[in-house]
Write a structure and sequence with these properties.
By secondary structure, the protein is of the alpha/beta class. The chain has one domain: Rossmann fold. It is about 35% helix and about 25% strand. The protein contains six helices and eleven strands. It has helices at about 10-20, 55-60, 80-95, 125-140, 175-185, 205-210; strands at about 1-5, 25-30, 45, 65-70, 100-105, 145-150, 155, 160-165, 175, 195-200, 205. It has a nine-stranded mixed beta sheet with strand order 3-2-1-4-5-6-10-8-11, sandwiched between helices. The longest helix has 19 residues, at about 80-95.
């Protein structure tokens, strides 16, 4: 498949791109600074600015079969990037006729009553931005979406391949595990139209995703 990854210089995106390439896909890696992305036979860097219009963005994603939104401003521009940037990419996907859309979100972002939980209160503004992006995707598009909501991201050299879903409180998530989950849902039709909370755990990814 031809796949567009928005926010391609981010930590999760870099791991995701390697997973997708290893699975035989061609990745169009969208970033504000495409020079930071190595060009290979399976990776095409694309200059990509989420402040552009949906019409402009649609021209950049037209040749692809699926889109991942993994971009984030790290708190610097939550409204323009994390919230409205995601919405504009969804609109661009519909303009371009791309049906599959996978959104990297944040645990319990669609549940405002959880935003004061331990470990979440300090990122409330981030979850507010993610709430609007998630809700737009669910309520205002006809896209075949999957929303992945991990808790706190942590560095790790390799993936364990073991997770838990439908979590009841925020827990750590290794970046390689999150990347593997994002890649694994791509063609799993049982994940279409689903919001999946996750954390590191003890269940193999394939088994966990079969049960969502």
């Amino acid at each position: 498949m031809k796949i567009f990854v928005a926010g391609a210089t981010g930590r999760v995106a870099q791991a995701l791109i390697q997973e997708l390439v290893s699975a035989g896909h061609h990745v169009f890696a969208g970033a504000r600074n495409p020079a930071a992305i190595p060009t290979t036979s399976n990776i095409t860097p694309v200059a990509f600015d989420l402040t552009a219009s949906p019409e402009e963005l649609s021209k950049l994603i037209a040749p692809v079969d699926a889109i991942y939104f993994t971009a984030g401003s790290r708190g610097a521009n939550l409204l323009q990037v994390d919230a409205f940037g995601a919405v504009k990419l969804m609109q661009a996907a519909e303009l371009a006729g791309v049906e599959r859309f996978i959104l990297l979100s944040s645990v319990f972002a669609t549940q405002p009553e959880r935003w004061s939980d331990p470990g979440l209160a300090e990122i409330m503004n981030y979850n507010i931005a993610k709430f609007f992006a998630d809700q737009w995707l669910i309520r205002n598009t006809s896209l075949d979406y999957t929303i992945i909501q991990p808790g706190r991201l942590v560095e790790a050299s390799t993936a364990t391949g073991l997770i838990q879903t439908d979590v009841t409180f925020a827990q750590p998530n290794s970046i390689p595990n999150v990347a593997q989950v994002l890649a694994a849902v791509l063609e799993r039709r049982n994940t279409f139209g689903k919001v999946i909370t996750m954390a590191d755990g003890s269940v193999p990814i394939a088994e966990a995703l079969e049960a969502v």
